Please model this.
Amino acid sequence: MHIIGGRSPNRALHTGQQVDVPPDVLTTITTMPANGIKYITKITCSGEENARWEIYINSERKATKRTTDRTVDFDFNLPLKMMPAEVLDVKAIHFGPGASSTLEATIFGFPE
Model:
């Protein structure tokens, strides 16, 4: 973890939400361009339905998890390093019983 003056600068970098997400459709919940070097330490995901969550950097899938209690965290022991031109997408697909759902994600980390 990156430490400055004995304190970690880890913080919420970006939050996104999508409402009325239909079932059975992989949907981008939030997109964050790096806009400079960033280190991603954690991504929290939640919603009204259980879902499969996928993390992409420049359209390449980096991680996948499924919720069992409508929330899931991606904790990165070694932070994901994003270069200035890279883009991080958090996507989800839920299989709710014919209902639309609200899904949200928060990306935590720190700039270089």
